[in-house]
């Protein structure tokens, strides 16, 4: 099996390729891993290979591959949950159960891609279990989730689990550079450090101007946090009052920064390896760094409660300075 442009995860690719090429691919697989590690990309690649009619699969050029890449293959069915728990409803699984026993339209088999499987309701999982217990010979089920532990043990036991993770920073840089022709390589290298080789997160941040802006704010806030003049932190954060989406993005990044600093302070090495985290770890105690995490998580929750932005940011700055002992 070919894995065009799918970086890293060599052992997972080796196992999948061997099973596929030897005709012993399991009827159900679970691809687990953090957001951005390529679960959907790999799932679609496996689906494409399953409907491919070329000599080497997926060949990328046969009618099956062309339709699969376009999202129009009649034998590939996709369903997904939302971001909320139990948002993957049983109705989608009921359709799958009625459809899976019907012969494929064109391909040798039907493929069912079930994304965000961790959001399946218990009712939906039990409905899926019934078909996994006696799967049709011509059906392949591919589930993606953050962690297979979020699924019922009975569902997990009837599928083979493969765990995906971030790749090396160098592999991530090469993969993202290939997907975004013309992008500044220095920006990609910075994103690789920031996200620890998580290609999905890198692509999102490099293509989202708000996330890029958030990344610029984070080291400035970290520096102002320990500056002698308390007004410096207020000045740096003032623009966030007018842009609540940017405020959310900055707070999300700050949680990561402060956690990285905690890890470094405890003697570990943070994925991002940012100098701002290293400087904070050298300046503040672990208790103070943990307090910064707590205050930032609380501020992030308050944003979702529609708190007054000016009051929220001002109070947050005061609490950060207090938590840092300034």
UniProtKB/TrEMBL annotation:
<dbReference type="Pfam" id="PF13177">
    <property type="entry name" value="DNA_pol3_delta2"/>
</dbReference>
<keyword id="KW-0067">ATP-binding</keyword>
<keyword id="KW-0547">Nucleotide-binding</keyword>
<dbReference type="InterPro" id="IPR050238">
    <property type="entry name" value="DNA_Rep/Repair_Clamp_Loader"/>
</dbReference>
<dbReference type="GO" id="GO:0005524">
    <property type="term" value="F:ATP binding"/>
</dbReference>
<dbReference type="InterPro" id="IPR027417">
    <property type="entry name" value="P-loop_NTPase"/>
</dbReference>
<dbReference type="GO" id="GO:0006261">
    <property type="term" value="P:DNA-templated DNA replication"/>
</dbReference>
<protein>
    <submittedName>
        <fullName>ATP-binding protein</fullName>
    </submittedName>
</protein>
